[in-house]
Amino acid sequence: MGAKNRMSPDDRLSSWKEIASYLDTTPRTVMRWEAVGLPVHRLQTGKRASVYAFKSELDAWVAERSQSPQADEEEAPAPSRRGLWVGIAAAAALAVLAFALRPGSIGPPVGGEPVELTRDPGLERSPAFSPDGSQVAYARRRPGAADFDIFVLDRASARTRPLAVGPTNELAPVWSPDGESIVYVREKPGGVRMLDLEIVQLEAGAAPDELGSAGRVLGELSRPVLYYREPMLLGPYFAWSADGRTLIVPDGTPSERSVSGRAPPVPRGLFSHDLASGKRKRLTSVEDVVGGDTEPALSPDGRRLAFVRRFRPYYSELFVLDLDAPHEPPRQLTHFGELVMTPRFTPDGKSILVSAGQFGAGRALWRVDVGASREPERILTPPRNLYGFDLAPDGRTVVFTRGRPRMDIWGVRVDALPHVSAPVLTSGGVDKLPTLSPDGSRMAFFSDRGETTEIWLASAEGSAPRQLTHGAGDGDDSLDWSPDGALLATTLRGPEGRDVTTVDVTTGEITRLTHGLEAQSVRWSPDGKWIHFRAKQGDAAGGIHRIARTGGAIERVASGLCLDFASDAYSALHVHENRKLIARRGDKRVILAGLSTPQAYAPARDRVFFLEPNGPNRATLEYANLDGTERATFLNVPDVGRDLTTDADATLLRWSQTEQPESDLMLVGLD
Question: pTM score, two decimals?
């Protein structure tokens, strides 16, 4: 191809985006190629530098690399749809370039070393192999976008094509057994807690932007409670029967929905959904757990149904139901006490693969024996964790989401105007559930900045962090500093459930006060003698209880989700089952706010600070006097966590805030 005159406007590309479009790749990839010689020029204008490139120089660079057998296999560029890559197409027969050229064939990885399947910026999750293993459907949220769309990647050409794109989230694609359709969920607009179950019929030979026909709605589903909270946590949502006539879906029954048509807060069980009639039959049922039964998988012979039961936001276990004996209860196959995701049967039906570990650290791929005759076996521990995945039909290749969730601790000074929030403590991973010491000088929090999630201490401004506990495990609910500053109260996972636990602030010593209650929402009494908590199972199930700081008898004191006291020790703060924050003093009762989570409030002096919902996973930070006569808004908080804390003088506020994570899809071969 002849070079054009450099002075011609047609030869010049004036931004990363234009260069990437010309090379048919992404701006991030172009920046990587620049490091290995891609001819990109920079023009300094004041403090900023703009970039530009000439098409003729790019063509020459591509031609030179396509003729060299030493081309860098990670950095070789993509064939352009403009026909610039004839030389590369011929050279692609070389083995060294088989994976290097992008797009190019993405074959099976070998040796247990993961290789990138996608390299695009943003967040990618919910990968699903086609029945022949040649394609992967997945959900992707592009940088700056507010929603996920569904794409299909062809492994032979590495071409990615859109399947379902819209103004709301499209998630959890699953292929039909014949490979001719894909089902997925589409979020309803307007904040309705329901999802549309949609199906797309694939069209052979369609253009890249016309992969399938418009989605057809098959029905409605309850939106899971963690749908917005953690992008990493929504795994596969359906399972097809082998004959393609039935879907296994998580949902609540119509009678559990309100008159308005809005869904209950969690899917209560799994149902078989007949595609012809739309009728559903209940398969499992579970009560009083946060996430219900979800992520179904059918065995190759269709006789067993595997699924995860999500007890808490970051705690779930693997179960299996014998469909030949549907009246028998499902069997629990794992007792990790952590977050289990994405069950997948091996082709012989004898084992189930799952992703398991703490939410933010130490996640791995495990093999679980269906007959429970052997202990679970760890088979893959990739760097940067492993969340949702799929197993290829041959049982030898896994595609998985590699990433790391990120949650930082943010704060604001109450006495500084204007009120501007800023990050106080960040590690690139998960820092959450902060609690300030009574004097406001120190902060305790959970963090995965080490090899496991532990409790850490730092100054109130986030400096000098140090690990306090060793072997505590993840905290997914609450952390509260005692009034005398000596102890922390929290809930930690034990053999029988989540226990009320104290931690010595000086030594890190852990003392479990309860066993088997599945405790939540710990709060100290103003005198520091009692710890109030909610019990969800065992003899004390239901309502708010208290236990002495040294242990002993458990007393039920109220109904609701959480109980606390203002600093005057006379005004009780009670969180009702509907998350309404209520102040009580004697016979007087004042509804102060609706909370984003049961822990999202912090009393101090004669007022209480709180986070009130303001859209999906967003909140406004506000305060109100205990008598309800005064109320004001501080600021808006995006991607809010589960918590809020202040010091005794109400000068500092701290909370955890989810940051925009990034993830990629990876391929790995199993031995």
Answer: 0.62
